[in-house]
């Protein structure tokens, strides 16, 4: 931090050292609430990526030989220091990306869970004994870490993604180069301070800040990177997928979503409505698993719209440090324009604004649209704002069909008392995740989190990451 101005000056964290960009370049990080200057950060170059990968590669041979006890101790120590630095992390989430304090505390608590779950993973990297056709032969498989893991995280849940992906990679013996979103670099650098304070060896965790569009390819295509995990847009994910396929680099990609919620006529609306609101308005809809499509059986459709409209008028849009505030600012000018364009296009083509549609500063009001049709952009595209469409359906079967009518396949939900229909939906929805009588927004440290189709490749979570970030080796012993 600049002692004279109080402005944060952020540097890379490479091989245990805080470094400026190789060409001394910087970029500005803005507070999305009012676009005021939040920090100045090192603008990473190809040379900086090279230095970080080299540090991670050099650290790997010794780090992979560390014991489960050592890695477990480091991770639990990280959790302890995170608790001590709760205010720093929560303040950063509020001021750097515009998280309401309620969401910031949710993310902080979830981040602690991710770290502690990863600590438990250290003792679960296992192979198996295998029957052999050769007499007097012991046949087995062992799991080994891959090497250098490239972690690319988004702006919307930077602490959850950082704690999960970095901790799981370290837990199984890999080293990490982390490229956070250019809109949320400080959060990852606070985490780097915590990692260093916990005693994790230099080079095991490295952070380069900068523009993903400029240096992302330098990281994902690097010959010394052994695994890539990316969370972000489908367009960028497809680009990374092509790079990894060309280089035969394994990867997991957690991408966009157009997550549906089906509400059947027997659902209890008193219980459904707060969960429905949570599933789209948390962090102003800037969540890949947010429910941007509601399919509601016709007998309760009008009542559902009426209640949802009433909720929209009461959703908090006050001070971000007020626990009653729900709606966050939209992160950037480009994303604000996308939200505005989607709403304007829908209204111009005949959609009805049941609620919202207006802006208060950089915040979009909670917005409900009905009479949405195929020619409208938001019918199929991800808006990434507090905007959702509500469609009437005449049967469960129609709801399932329409829920599956998408290129995406991330999260999904159904509300009903009919257990047969609920499980039929769970078995037949083309999404990677399904929640019965719960919102599309849900995550836990140990679950297989991820989607299908345009929503990504592979799964995240302790068990899934253990399998993805290690490789099996077959070993035989002739006795």
TrEMBL record:
The EC designation for this entry is 1.2.1.67
Gene3D superfamilies, per database record: Aldehyde Dehydrogenase, Chain A, domain 1, Aldehyde Dehydrogenase, Chain A, domain 2
| Record keywords | NAD, Oxidoreductase
Against Pfam families, the record matches this protein to: Aldedh (PF00171)
Q: Name one GO molecular function term.
A: vanillin dehydrogenase activity
Domain spans labelled Aldehyde dehydrogenase? 18-475
Tell me the active site. 254
PANTHER family in alphabetical order: BENZALDEHYDE DEHYDROGENASE YFMT (PTHR42986)
Name the protein family: Belongs to the aldehyde dehydrogenase family.
What is this protein's record name? Vanillin dehydrogenase
Q: Which organism is it from?
A: Planktotalea frisia
């Amino acid at each position: 931090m600049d002692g004279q101005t109080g402005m944060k000056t952020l540097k890379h964290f490479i091989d245990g050292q805080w470094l400026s960009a190789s060409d001394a370049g910087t970029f500005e990080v803005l507070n999305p609430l009012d676009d005021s200057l939040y920090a100045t950060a090192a603008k990473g170059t190809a040379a900086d990526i090279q230095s970080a990968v080299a540090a991670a590669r050099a650290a790997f041979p010794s780090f992979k030989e560390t014991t489960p006890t050592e890695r477990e101790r480091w991770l639990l120590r990280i959790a302890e220091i995170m608790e001590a630095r709760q205010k720093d992390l929560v303040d950063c989430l509020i001021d750097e990306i515009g998280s309401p304090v309620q969401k910031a505390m949710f993310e902080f608590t979830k981040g602690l869970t991710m770290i502690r779950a990863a600590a438990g993973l250290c003792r679960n990297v296992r192979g198996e004994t295998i029957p052999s056709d050769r007499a007097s032969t012991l046949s087995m498989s062992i799991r080994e870490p891959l090497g250098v893991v490239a972690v690319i995280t988004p702006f919307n849940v930077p602490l959850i993604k950082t704690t999960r992906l970095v901790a799981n990679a370290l837990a199984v013996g890999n080293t990490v180069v982390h490229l956070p979103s250019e809109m949320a670099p400080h959060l990852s650098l606070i985490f780097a301070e915590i990692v260093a304070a916990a005693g994790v060896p230099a080079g095991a965790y490295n952070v380069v800040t900068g523009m993903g569009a400029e240096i992302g390819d330098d990281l994902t295509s690097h010959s010394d990177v052994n695994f890539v995990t990316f969370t972000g847009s489908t367009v960028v994910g497809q680009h990374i997928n092509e790079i990894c396929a060309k280089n035969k680099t394994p990867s997991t990609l957690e991408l966009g979503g157009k997550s549906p919620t089906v509400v059947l006529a027997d659902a209890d609306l008193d219980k459904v409505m707060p969960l429905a609101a949570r599933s789209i308005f948390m962090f102003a809809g800037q969540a890949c698993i947010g429910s941007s499509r509601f399919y509601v059986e016709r007998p309760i459709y009008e009542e559902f719209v009426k209640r949802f409209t009433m909720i929209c008028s009461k959703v908090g849009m006050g001070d971000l440090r007020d626990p009653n505030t729900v709606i966050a600012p939209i992160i950037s000018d480009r994303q604000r324009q996308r939200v505005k364009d989607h709403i304007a296009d829908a209204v111009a083509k005949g959609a009805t604004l049941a609620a919202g549609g207006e802006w208060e500063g950089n915040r979009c009001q909670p917005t409900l649209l009905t009479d949405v049709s195929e020619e409208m952009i938001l019918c199929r595209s991800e808006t990434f704002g507090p905007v959702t469409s509500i469609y009437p359906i005449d049967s469960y079967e129609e709801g399932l069909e329409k829920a599956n009518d998408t290129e995406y396949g991330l999260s999904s939900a159904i509300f009903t008392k009919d257990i047969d229909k609920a499980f039929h939906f769970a078995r037949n929805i083309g999404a990677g995740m399904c929640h019965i009588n719960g919102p599309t927004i849900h995550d836990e440290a140990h679950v297989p989190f991820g989607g299908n189709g345009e929503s990504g490749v592979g799964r995240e979570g302790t068990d899934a990451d253990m399998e993805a970030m290690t490789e099996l080796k077959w070993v035989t012993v002739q006795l």
